[in-house]
Design brief:
108 residues; Arc Repressor Mutant, subunit A; four-stranded antiparallel beta sheet; three-stranded antiparallel beta sheet; 3 helices; 32% helix
Length: 108
Amino acid sequence: MSCAICSECGAVRGGTHRRGPLTVQSDPPAAYWRGVRIKLSPRQIAMLGLLAQRGDVSTLGLTLVGTGEDTNPDQLKVAICNLRRRLPEGLTIETIRAWGYGVRISDE
């Protein structure tokens, strides 16, 4: 399914995104790993959706989607840390030094 993307921040504006066994949909917000729903907040789903769509996302892109533009960098780090704790085994978010974050899928 195709979706619109904000030309200013690159945020996903709807649709369903798949990356391997990960499926993230924006309306209604939900995330699935191998067909099993992952319990996430709407903001966490938005962040994971952007990562699922792009693979690697800049810190700025995730800040705008996950914590809002009027935040400090530490708030994004906390949001990513909380999201990482809720992800199932085999699905991880890596830090890309001095740039952003990337979603990684490993075989079990």
